[in-house]
Design goal:
Blueprint (H helix, E strand, L loop, with lengths): L2 E7 L5 E6 L2 H14 L5 H10 L4 E8 L4 H18 L16 H17 L11 H11 L6 H10 L2 H26 L13 E3 L5 E2 L5 H8 L3 H9 L9 E3 L1
Antiparallel strand pairs: 1-2, 1-3, 4-5, 4-6
C-alpha cells in the first residue's frame, strides 16, 4: 500500500508525518534507523530513546494512489494540520521541501552510505596521487586528458599570450578601482557621510566640520574606520590623538 503515514507516540500523541509508496518498507527503514540511534529526525529519535519503541506505532493516515507528486500533495494537508496543532516531530514544514524534505535527505544519506560500502577508502581519509586526482576530475567533466592534450594547453600559453592577459587584467582592475575611488570621494555620492569638527591633542591641529569623511581621511592620511568611530561617538579618541573638536 502507498499513501500518507504517521509514526505516533502513544504517550503524548505527537507524530511524525510522511508519505511512501510502500508502507511496510518505509516503516522497516524508520525502525532500523531509530533502533541504531541515528535517525535523521533528531526530535523523533530523542522521543524514541526517552519513551521506548513499545510506545510508538505506525499508522496509515490515508491511502493514496499516484506518483510522488500526488503523495506529497496529500502529505502537505496533514503537515499543515499537524503544525497548526503543534503535534509534529517533523522539521520541514513543506512536504518534500524546505529546500529538501526529510524523505529526500534520507534517500541522499542512504545513497551515500551505499556508496561508501562500495568505496570504503573514500571516507577514511585516503589520499590520492595527482595522477588519480586528474583522472577523477576529468571523469567528472566527461572527458579524458591525455598527456599530449596537456602539453598542447601549456604550449598555447605563450609569453605573448600571458602578457596580453596580464595587461588586460591590470587595465580592467585599474579602471574599476579608479571609478570606485572617484565615487567614494565624490561629494555628490549619496553614501558619503558628513563629519563633525576634529581636534588633534598631540599636534593641536583643528579640522572644521565637512561633507566627506572618506575624502578627509585620504587627504590627511588618516584611518577612516577610526575617524568614523570618533565621529559616531563610539570611541573618545584615536591612538594618534584625534577627538571631536
Amino acid at each position: 500500500m502507498q499513501g500518507v503515514y504517521r509514526i505516533r507516540n502513544k504517550i503524548n500523541d505527537k507524530r511524525y508525518i510522511g508519505s511512501a509508496q510502500d508502507f511496510d518498507e518505509r516503516w522497516d527503514t524508520h525502525r532500523k534507523e531509530l533502533r541504531k540511534g541515528n535517525h535523521y529526525n533528531k526530535y523523533l529519535q530523542r522521543a524514541w530513546n526517552r519513551h521506548g519503541e513499545e510506545n510508538f506505532v505506525f499508522e496509515v493516515e490515508e491511502e493514496a494512489k499516484g506518483d510522488n507528486g500526488t503523495l506529497l500533495t496529500r502529505e502537505q494537508v496533514y503537515l499543515d494540520e499537524g503544525f497548526a496543532l503543534g503535534i509534529l516531530y517533523n522539521i520541514a514544514r513543506k512536504a518534500g521541501g524546505g529546500n529538501l524534505g526529510e524523505e529526500a535527505l534520507e534517500k541522499m544519506r542512504q545513497t551515500k552510505q551505499d556508496y561508501f560500502k562500495l568505496h570504503p577508502g573514500h571516507n577514511k581519509g585516503k589520499k590520492y596521487s595527482q595522477k588519480a586526482c586528474n583522472k577523477m576530475s576529468a571523469g567528472r567533466l566527461g572527458m579524458t586528458f591525455t598527456q599530449e592534450h596537456k602539453d598542447n594547453i601549456r604550449k598555447s600559453w605563450t609569453p605573448e599570450r600571458k602578457k596580453k592577459s596580464s595587461d588586460e587584467w591590470k587595465t580592467w582592475w585599474t579602471s574599476e578601482r579608479r571609478k570606485k575611488r572617484s565615487e567614494d570621494y565624490s561629494d555628490g555620492n549619496p553614501n558619503v557621510k558628513s563629519y563633525p569638527a576634529f581636534y588633534n591633542t598631540k599636534t593641536n591641529v583643528f579640522v572644521p566640520a565637512g561633507k566627506n569623511l572618506k575624502k578627509l581621511c585620504n587627504e590627511q592620511n588618516l584611518v577612516y574606520e577610526n575617524m568614523r568611530m570618533v565621529a559616531r561617538g563610539q570611541t573618545e579618541q584615536t591612538k594618534d590623538g584625534w577627538k571631536l573638536g
